[in-house]
Amino acid sequence: xxxxxxxxxxxxxxxxxFGCKSNDAFRIDSFDTKSYPKELHVxxxxxxxxxxxxxxxxxxxxxxxxxxxxxxxxxxxxxxIPVMYSIHxxxxxxxxxxxxxxxxxxxxxxxxMCLRDVLKKDPTNNEIQDFGSLGKHPVTFESLTFDSxxxxxxxxxxxxxWTETCPGFKKY
Length: 172
Known about the structure:
alpha+beta
C-alpha cells in the first residue's frame, strides 16, 4: 500500500513538472543603457519564429546602396517585432547578412538575439507578415536595430563591440 501511495505521489509530481512547463517560443529581457532606459534587449526565440528579407528601397540618386536588411520576430502574443540593420547597403552585402543569420537559424531550434532601441507599439502600422505554418500576423511594434544573433556555438554580429554591450553574449 505504501508503494502505491509513493507511486501516486511520484506520478502527480511528474505531471505537475511537465504540465506546468512553459511552451513559450519567445522571451525578452530588457536592459538600461547610459542613454535610455530599456534600450538594450536580449531575445530568446524559436528559430521558426524568425523571418528575414532584403528590402529594395526605390530611392533616387543612391546608386546601388538601396537595400535594407530586415528581420521579423513573432512573439507569444502573435505580434510581430520588426528588426533592421540600419545601414542601407548593396544587395550582395544584404544577402550576405541574410545567409549568415539563416545558417544559424537552420542549425538550431532556438537562438538569442541582441537588439537595440526602445521597444514601442506602433498603432499606425497595418503591415502583415506571413510566417508560413505559424500563420499571418500583424506588425505591431516600431522597428528595433539588429546587433547580434547567437546559438550555443555560433554567433554573428554586425557590430564589432557587441561582446561588451550584450549581456551573456560572447564570441566562439
